[in-house]
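Human:
Take a look at this sequence-structure pair and walk me through the tokens.
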Amino acid sequence: MHQYNYTSTSNKLLVAEIVKLLTELYECKGRQDLYIENAPEILKSLMDQAQSLSAISACSITGSDITAEQLHALAENDINPNGRAEEEAIGYYQALTSIYEDYENIPISTDTICKLHEKLYRYTPGVTGGKLKQNDFVVAETMKDGSEKVQFVPVKSGDTRDSLNTLCNKFNEALQKGTYSPLLLIPIFTLDFLCIRPFKHGSGRISRLLTLLLLYKHGFFAGKYVSLEKIVAENIDTYHSTLRESADGWHNNSNNYMPFVRFYLELIRTTYERFQERVELRRNGKLSKADRVKSVFEKKMGRIKKRDIAACCPDISMTTIERTLAELLANGSIEKVGSARATAYILKK
């Protein structure tokens, strides 16, 4: 049986690499607080974009697609969703809204987790939202020959509630002691939650909602203005590989949390990097969209791909990005390197 020992686990993780990441994130938080104080109008615009993109990306991670226009119609016009993608997207959007609006008063408990799951699947027939799994299952990968390879065996259904209760209690105790940074404890909690897999459907989405809730409760707000889910989707292979690596041996307490914790801290750092880039881009006067694309090259070094520009400027269409790149190539400001999917651009000196 797994033991939720946050003292022992945290001690093992306090190596130079992790300490450096934690230090960088607290420095990011200091800059974040200045932005919140001095650029409220910019942040409101970024928050609206991030909330929609988070719901869309949460669907894409599990293989469902929905457009921004579809989600906007659902959120603004209070219409009934049509199909699984719309059902899950509006459910995620509304669950995320409840966290945005009331994170300070939402406790970390089994009851909270079930309520978030109920919101998530409120519109999805065939999935009983808010109910813990009733049957055992395994996490498996389908191989090329059609066979399945077991990746992980979650906690048994009959032990799920007790495991969740223990997880939440031990985590809250560790936070109250204040010995270790919440930023170190949160990814440990997330991995433990994913190893329990309390729901047949949606445990991954709930884990990301809980991550955002916990980050907000401890003053780390970049995920309100930049979609954490989008960055997970962009790095989904690394997410799955580090999860598998850190979950190996979890049941008998021989697992290594380091790969997943490192990945999650780097994920949060990327969220802050994009947050700072987007605020600065918008603070530099009323730049045109083309000028904002150009400014990406002034702020980043090395090779830049179209997707990097789109990540910095999510409100700018790919058509505008491509047109601006063509102009910069034509006037000699940038140089094209690579070809096909490896195509990138560098700023000429």
